[in-house]
Amino acid sequence: MFVDLDSGEASWDVAATQVRGVPVISYVNASDLTVRIVVCGNPACDPNVSASTYTTLASLGTRGQGNGTTVAVGSDGYPIVAFRDGDRGALMVAHCGDPLCRDRGLVRVVQVDPPDGTEDADVDTGIQASMVIGTDNLPIIAYHDRERGALKIAHCEDTACTQATIAILDRTANASTPGGVGLDPVIRIGRDGLPLVVFRDDDQKTVKLARCSDRVCTRAVVSVLVSEAGRDPGHGIAFVLAPGDIPVIVHNDWSDNGIWIATCTSAACSEVSKRRLDRAEDGTSADPSIALDGHGRPLIAFRQKLPGDERASRILKIVECEDIACAKASAPAIVDDNGRVGYVSTVQWLPNGEVTIAYGDATGGVLKFAFKAP
Fold first, then answer.
1. Which of 28, 66, 143, 296 could join 129 via S-S bond, C-beta 3.0 to 4.6 A?
2. Within 13 Å and on the Cβ side, how many CA atoms surround 199?
3. Global pTM?
């Protein structure tokens, strides 16, 4: 089942979460450069069952598109979205004032980094943000600071993130060419309550893991997960923690344009198994996302470009793994091949066994939603 949720260049920077089994999706509408949110009325986002609620949260600025959005549901039950304002070069947070984010007048938008009122023409931060709610019930956000070439963390001091503690976890060693560390970060919370962040170091062409030493993440121990001479891994990272706090990462390797899964053999992640999931003969791939089913097995969605097709990728596919390392898996199955689809997908497994994917369709600038019953 497919649902068109929004149109008019609404297919960019898609992110999704769920609350009580109902999808909540943030995205960018490029026609007016705004960040929007849709709270579905039912697990399938089916308008024939119940209507979804759409709200425009904030302006992105003229340079905001393409830098990602991230959405979570706070401890107060209200959606919260982090994004980058391109004109300010800043990390922003929009906090809804009700569970459906229905009342635009109750949405509070704050500038987190740099703090509001900071005058710095060179600031360029808040890129590719990833947000979760910590065990202290407060949002914590990982993001890239391009001007400093750094991976940063903002730990919010209240549910609306009106104040935050900012820390740098890793940064480029080459100050003359900033921008290479902390790209495509994804943050998760371990069973011990400590955040973990997987990210790309473009200087070293590696995928790294930062293990925070405290819940606010003022410092972290950083290790390399994926590194191989001549390769370019870590683009479009997606990351989950499997049962036992086992990190499982999917990413796009630009050296072969393939989708790879990297699974730690233990929670300590001293060893990592790696496997390619897509088939090279089917074309080049990008934009992976990952979820775990009720048995802790990965589901991976990605988009693929047909061989010889010089235009954008156009097929949304999914792989269903039979084990945590995906040593055995289904062949990539087509979810949607109607146009140029599959941009920035987010796959989710709902508690009732349903699988959903929110993604962009660049053919008509449509935010789409695919739903598969158990």
1. 143
2. 33
3. 0.95
